[in-house]
Design brief:
The complex is a heterodimer of chains A (576) and B (284). By secondary structure, chain A is an alpha/beta fold. Chain A folds into four domains: 3-184, Cytidine Deaminase, domain 2 (3-Layer(aba) Sandwich), CATH 3.40.140; 191-293, no CATH class; 294-374; 386-488 and 546-575, no CATH class. Chain A contains 16 helices and 15 strands. The longest helix of chain A is centred in the C-terminal third of the chain and has 51 residues, at 438-488. Chain A is elongated. By secondary structure, chain B is mainly α. Chain B has one domain. Helix content of chain B is 67%, strand content 1%. Chain B has helices at 35-41, 43-64, 69-90, 94-99, 103-125, 133-150, 162-177, 183-210, 212-233, 235-260, and strands at residues 25-26, 266-267. The longest helix of chain B is centred in the C-terminal third of the chain and has 28 residues, at 183-210. The two termini of chain B are 46 Å apart. The relative contact order of chain B is 0.16. At the A-B interface, helix 13 of A face helix 5, helix 7 and helix 8 of B. Chain A: Keywords: Membrane, Transmembrane, Transmembrane helix. Chain A: One of its GO terms (biological process) is GPI anchor biosynthetic process. Chain A: It comes from Athene cunicularia (Burrowing owl). Chain A: The chain crosses the membrane at residues 203-222, 273-292, 338-357, 364-391, 397-419, 440-464, 470-495.
Chain lengths: 576, 284
């Protein structure tokens, strides 16, 4: 079988010594973590290794010898190195030697207790220790589609990454430390001496505690009984601003908790939430500064009333058109007049209400605009709520029209069954024949005729108001989609993928380096970063997302029967 | 030769001897009709046709303004009272005792239905304002045709549905009534339709069961009245209608009896077995 040796590229110029690392026997590969230089005492080395093994739970052992001679191969050194093999018993004992500055090293293994005497093939794989240590290997997303073969590959890689990542403590000892053992491995450039970072780290703990205290206070107030009375609780559940604020409160609680992140996913989640909040608040403050400059709020308030008036006027024109002969359709005149007048009166009420509120609009808008500093998402939610309030009369008309139409459809279907002499059997949930009395038959047929001939009129009013309502719903839905996007996009992960792409690894790729006959095959292992799509998919933040509740067919069926539609479902709502 | 196939015989498999088709029977269950009985039963169809004709003629007169609603209402009221008394008198009160329906219940349903129709008559009048006259005529004609098709003439067929036929007739009457000038006209028209399509057949069924001779006389009188009314409206129509009535009452029975002789049903031991005994004695 082929023997794979993973050699850190930072140790290529190290002085001679012995190699320590982990031997993975299932894959017949050796992961070399560091080089221990001469002189050393074998007993101390073994003690050190057992300590490291206890702390990191990685079975680190002496794997072989490394000789880096500037001149030609010294025979005595090689014998000495072979003898070392007997002291540190490891099967197979790997010997790597580099002559001068040549790139081609010679590797050989010493099999002590092997059955087949022939030479094994060795593949030398160089890896960047720092990058492999810092990166996180992502398992493939669709594990169901994988065969066993690929799953094995993934776990092999995971073993190698794990080995390097868990041996962090090994990398903490410095080359210049005065200890019994001198190691060569990846070295950090020294602890950052930046004072600001240190100060921030020190200050973050009390800041977190303060934030936690404030948040618990706020959530305690929110949960108090005062705010749970019926009209208020209904209002809170309908306003999307409250939901968004609650969502952000949850986020704040997550990042201000004192517990350190246990694993990679939690850490990324915290970082994503933090960055998302920052960006949100920054955009919100930007929006606020734009709004309050040059008295734009005043202009907005000034144009709001004329816009509402204009909308009401358009509605009135529409109703006048419906009361005539719309599109050449034949409406029942009497019913037409009744419905038209009813809706016109409603519009009249609405206009008076708006005019009553007009002196206070500017002040309300001014204060409401201040809340944009809580984030762009909050501002967008407020906008969506304002739209809902302004088009409340359209919603009312839709409900009236829908209820009338629904009543008519149910009446018609029931009376149609009476017309044919059948009845709906509630017990068996089917249509059965039934013998009706004479007066029942008569009155039923009369009502059926009346409802049938009045159907076009009601249906037209229903259609018009449903279309208007769907328009408003679509606009609100778009705004909510935007809010969702800002909420759930993992900004920190995307920035990480841009700047330090090796941190998020999807796999590795191997580049074949120059080869020479007789020398082992040399490969360079490079990290393959995760694609942007998988980054977003893996690190998406969960939201109270709103997505369409019904499929197209059920939506059409509801529209046809006149049932009220609420197309967007929020995660917290109970299912019907 | 034996009539079996499970034994080897020197004859070919499809051999038959002279006893072939000995057990064939023809037209065992064919009914023998008598001309007079069939003509008598066809009176039901004639009656319905005449009802439809009378209704349409009455509507025509009201539309033309030659018949006042009050007059029609009065006449209808008187005739329904007469019919009501006759209904009970024909079988001497036995039917009423059997069905258990009191006079008070009858009065209540009459009042309810009259009040309902009167209350809805303004709505009824404006119901089809925007629909063209041709559509109304076509719809009414279809509905009346449906009424004739689905009516219960006493036959035991699957297509018969008395509910459906009555509803279709009422629907047609509402359609036609909505064309009249005022809501009182509409009210009277609908009431008259109710009487002629719902109450008259009930009375006639009873008459047919109890006094066949009276029934025949009433049918003939009714047919003559319908023809007379139609003749004042259109003579061509009257002639056609008369020929239709004659065809249905005299010609069709003759055709039925003639064609009955051409019936060719064969029965034999190959028929499906019918269990004739009462097997309930095997139930525990």
């Amino acid at each position: 079988m082929v023997l794979k040796v993973f050699f850190p590229s930072c140790c290529s110029s190290a002085e001679s010594g012995i190699l320590i690392g982990r031997w993975i026997s299932e894959q017949n590969s050796a992961v070399i973590l560091a080089v221990v230089h001469f002189p050393f005492i074998p007993a101390q080395v073994k003690q050190y290794l057992s300590e490291v093994q206890r702390v990191t739970k990685v079975s680190v052992s002496v794997l072989g010898s490394w000789s880096n001679s500037k001149q030609e191969k010294e025979e005595s050194l090689s014998e000495f190195l072979e003898d070392l093999g007997t002291i540190f018993s490891h099967d197979p004992w790997i010997q790597i030697s580099k002559e001068g500055d040549s790139n081609f090293w010679s590797c050989s293994t010493l099999q002590k207790h092997s059955n087949n005497p022939k030479e094994e093939e060795i593949i030398l794989v160089y890896y960047d220790q720092r990058k492999v240590m810092l990166s996180h290997l992502h398992p493939p997303l669709d594990t169901a589609a994988f065969t066993d073969h690929k799953a094995d590959d993934a776990s092999k890689l995971a073993a190698i990454f794990d080995t390097v990542a868990k041996s962090k403590i090994l990398f903490m000892t410095d080359r210049y430390d005065d200890g019994p053992i001198k190691l060569t491995h990846w070295q950090s450039d020294g602890v950052e001496a930046s004072i600001i970072v240190e100060l921030m780290k020190q200050a973050s703990v009390p800041a977190c505690m303060l934030l936690t205290f404030l948040l618990s206070l706020i959530s305690g107030i929110c949960r108090s009984r005062v705010l749970k009375f019926w009209p208020l609780s209904f209002l809170w559940s309908k306003l999307s601003t409250c939901e968004q604020l609650g969502h952000r409160l949850q986020h704040l609680q997550v990042i201000s908790s004192n517990k350190k992140a246990q694993n990679h996913t939690q850490l990324m989640r915290k970082a994503n939430i933090f960055v998302s909040l920052l960006i949100d608040v920054a955009l919100g403050i930007l929006l606020m500064s734009w709004l309050y400059r040059k008295n734009r709020i005043g202009h907005l308030a000034d144009t709001l009333i004329p816009v509402a008036d204009h909308v009401a006027e358009e509605l009135q024109d529409l109703l006048q058109w419906l009361m005539g002969a719309p599109a050449g359709l034949k409406m029942n005149r009497a019913l037409d007049q009744v419905l038209g007048r009813f809706f016109l009166y409603h519009i009249h009420l609405w206009i008076s209400y708006i005019h009553l509120m007009s002196p206070f609009i500017e002040m309300i808008l001014w204060y409401v605009g201040l809340s944009a500093c809580l984030g762009l998402t909050v501002a967008l939610c407020i906008l969506s709520d304002i739209i809902a309030l302004l088009t409340f009369h359209i919603y009312c008309f839709y409900v009236y029209g829908a209820r009338l139409y629904c009543l008519k459809i149910y009446g018609l279907s029931s009376l149609w069954r009476l017309f044919r002499g059948k009845k709906w059997n509630v017990l068996r949930q089917r249509v059965d024949s039934c013998s009706y009395d004479l007066d029942q038959l008569f009155i039923g047929t009369l009502l059926f005729t009346i409802l049938l001939f009045l159907l076009p009129t009601t249906a037209l009013y229903y259609l018009v108001f449903t279309l208007l309502r769907l328009l408003v719903v679509i606009v609100q839905g778009l705004i909510h989609l935007l809010v969702d996007l800002i909420d759930s996009l993992p900004f920190y992960s995307i920035i990480l993928r841009l700047c330090r792409s090796y941190r998020l690894a999807a796999g590795v790729k191997f580049r074949v380096l120059e080869q020479q006959d007789g020398k082992p095959l040399r490969l360079l292992m490079q990290i393959n970063p995760l694609s942007y799509g998988s980054v977003v998919q893996t690190y998406r933040l969960p939201t109270y997302s709103c997505y369409p509740k019904d499929t197209w067919t059920s939506l059409c069926k509801k529209l046809f029967l006149g049932e009220l539609i609420y197309p967007w479902k929020h995660k917290g709502e109970k299912q019907d | 030769w034996q009539k079996v196939l499970y034994e080897r015989q020197p004859f070919p498999d499809n051999y038959v001897d002279q006893r072939f088709l000995e057990e064939l029977r023809k037209n065992v269950h064919a009914r023998r009709y008598r001309y007079r009985a069939v003509v008598f039963q066809s009176g039901a169809v004639v009656q319905q046709l005449c009802s439809v004709c009378v209704f349409v003629v009455t509507w025509w007169y009201m539309d033309a303004g030659m018949l006042s609603p009050q007059g029609l209402f009065g006449a209808a009221l008187v005739s329904s009272l007469l019919g009501y008394i006759l209904f009970d008198a024909v079988d001497g009160g036995a039917g009423r005792q059997e069905s258990g329906r009191t006079r008070w219940a009858d009065l209540k349903s009459t009042l309810v239905f009259a009040a309902f129709t009167y209350g809805f008559s303004p709505v009824l009048k404006t119901l089809t304002e925007s629909i063209s006259t041709d559509t109304i005529y076509a719809m009414s004609a279809l509905m009346l045709l449906g009424h004739l098709i689905f009516f219960d003439y006493g036959a035991n067929a699957a297509i018969v549905s008395s509910t459906l036929s009555l509803n279709m007739a009422i629907f047609a009457s509402v359609c036609l009534a909505s064309r009249l000038p005022r809501s009182l006209h509409a009210f009277v028209m609908v009431t008259f339709a109710m009487q002629i399509f719902a109450l008259w057949p009930m009375l006639q069924k009873k008459l047919k069961a109890q006094t066949p001779r009276c029934y025949v006389g009433v049918t003939v009188l009714f047919a003559l009245a319908a023809l007379g009314g139609l003749a004042t409206v259109s003579s061509v129509g009257a002639v056609l209608f008369a020929s239709l009535l004659v065809a249905i009452s005299c010609l069709c029975p003759y055709c039925l009896i003639r064609l009955q002789q051409l019936k060719d049903n064969i029965h034999g031991p190959w028929d499906e077995a019918e269990i004739k005994e009462d097997l309930s004695r095997f139930l525990m």
